[in-house]
Amino acid sequence: MQSTPRFKVSRLAVLAAMSSAALLAGGCTAIRDHRGYLFDPALTDAIQPGVDNRQSVEGTLGHPSFASQYGPPVYYYVSSTTEQRVFGVPQTEEHRVLKVAFDDSGTVTSVTQGGIDDVRDISPDGDETETMGRDRSFIEDLFGNIGTVGGVGTGGPGGPGPNGS
Predict the structure, then answer these.
(1) In this predicted model, what pLDDT tens digit does every residue of 86-115 receive, in sequence order?
(2) Which residues of 33-71 are buried (b: 16+ CB within 10 A; e: fewer)?
């Protein structure tokens, strides 16, 4: 049976409409993004306080996302998953932190997990940060050092030294 030109045109129109609908539906999907450590419950449950040490934790979980700089040694493994709709702001869907604390000899003392409920929203003052010292104007900041660096009598290059030479 021979297809008529009218039938071919309608088939093309249906295919074009279906592909357009698929593209439009795809534009409404959310973009998911995962950052940080990929949690594996079998691995995280394997860390035992009093048994494991820093080397065994790094061998099991890998290098931490970051480690404490002050106080007792602590490894933090951080994972965050966000979702963003078209033209939207990314929203945090899941946030997990595994905290592995060590004693001074490097033995694990505790393993705790935190989630999105432990996240604190801080609002720093965006206007200006106070500093110690003089309050100078923009013009003083711009032209304040003219003539002071290497000037005569300052001990800088070209000026006399501390003994007057």
Answers:
(1) 888 888 888 899 999 999 999 999 999 998
(2) eeeebeeeeeebeebeeeebebebbeeebeebbeeeeee
CB 97 within 8 A of CB 77: yes
For the question of whether the overall pTM of this predicted structure is more than 0.85, the answer is: no
Q: 81: Cβ–Cβ under 8 A, 6 or more apart, which residues?
A: 32, 33, 34, 35, 92, 93, 94, 95
Contacts 24+ apart (CB under 8 A), 68-75: 72/101, 72/102, 72/103, 72/104, 72/109, 73/101, 73/102, 73/104, 73/106, 74/99, 74/100, 74/101, 74/102, 75/99, 75/100, 75/102
Smallest CA-to-CA distance from 36 within 77, 74, 72, 75 is with 77
